[in-house]
Structure formats: C-alpha cells, structure tokens
Amino acid sequence: MTNIYGSPEKIQYAKRLFEIGIKYLEGQGYEVSRVPRAGKKSLRRAKRGKEEFNVAIRTSQDQWFAFPRDDASGRWLGMDDVNVERVIVVALNTREEGKEKKGLVHDFPADEVRKRLNRNFEARRKANPDVDISHGNWISLYHEEASDPVSLVAAGIGLKYEPVDRVPLFASASDEVEDEDLAEADSSIPAVSAAASPVDEALTIPEAKRRLALTFGVDPSAIKITVEG
C-alpha cells in the first residue's frame, strides 16, 4: 500500500529491506541466485547442499504485503506459478515509534501464505463479487484477525510467525538491488523508474479510492469522495 517511490528515503528503505531478505538467506548458509527465465524479479533460488527451493521476497513499509491472483486459474502469481516453498517478508518496524529503524525478517511457509490469501480473497469476494485485486491481494502482518472489515480476515501471520531476525537499516543499500526487484516485491508499485515519480506527488482521487477500497475490502467504484473547497 505504501508508495515506495514517494521519496528518495522510501526508495532506500525498500532497497535495504530487500537486501536484508537476501542477506538473511545467505546467513542461513544458502547460496542465493536469480531464477533464469522465470520472469519474476523478486524470485530467488536458495541452495544449501542438496536442499534447493524457490523463495519469494516481499518488503513492507506499512506492514502489509501482497500477491496478485490469476483469475482464470485461481493461482497466486509469483508463488503458485513458480513453485515457491518459502516467502520471506521484511517489514519496517513502524509500529515501534521512537525506536531505531530496523528490518523485521519473517520466514513463512508458502502453504501458510497461500491459505491466508485464499481465505482473505474469498471473504472479500463474498462481501463484493466484483472486488478488484488487480494491484494484489493484501494481507496484514500484525493486525489481529477480524471478520470486519473483511481486509482483516486471515490477518496476523506476522504474529503467528514472529521475526526471525531484526536488522538495523543504518547500512546503505547495495547497487545490486534494482528498481524492478522492488516493484514486484511490493506488488502495488508499477514497474517504472524511481526517477519518474516526484518526491511530493499529490494524492489523486482514483488513488485515494483504491487505498480506501483495499482497507475496506470493497471495489473502488463503491467509494464516493466529496471535496469541498
């Protein structure tokens, strides 16, 4: 939900969070590489001895994360279509006001993420058969699960699977992390150059409707906004 291209600071946060995810896997003894011809920028192959698997890396500056869904097959793109076994989510510790900024590393089984995505999507669709998740289906890391609003159905995966590492953000992100990696890792962000977005970009009515629709689990067309000058 957070526009990581909204400021140079957010861009650096996103790069550093993604890098922390890779460093976490390497710290577990895995050799981490890109997956050739997969077409998924945030997908990585982790190998340690005879153990080898695909891992999806997601970053979060607002403590939600997402996967897009293929309506025809019902598969979660970036996970089901590329045989992902684990999902690494690195979240900025924005809940801890006044604390040093850190990346909270979560290591989730892909099956758990898939089950929560399915439950959340079905709840959204039941509430609104025309629900639009073209920007991804969002899951809250730290909210307690609730049935109302429907966006909180299946929430709290970051409470069940607590952080396995907490890494300070003081280090500069390396140049190995590309903008395209970030755009897919935070799947609400279009794959465009970071330089193309102004630092103080105005919030448009369509974008405001999209964000509110995500919050309440409804279609953007159901959101009515009145501006009085």
What is the gist of this entry?
The protein is an alpha+beta fold. The chain has five helices and eight strands.
Could you explain the architecture of this structure?
This protein has 229 residues and is α+β, with helices and mostly antiparallel strands. 27% of the residues lie in helices and 21% in strands. The chain is built from five helices and eight strands, in the order αββββββαβαβαα. β2 and β3 form a beta hairpin. It is globular.
For the structure shown, list the relevant keywords.
229 residues, alpha+beta, 5 helices, 8 strands
Provide the fold topology:
Blueprint: H1 8-27, E1 31-34, E2 43-48, E3 51-60, E4 64-67, E5 84-92, E6 102-109, H2 110-127, E7 137-140, H3 157-160, E8 165-168, H4 179-185, H5 205-216
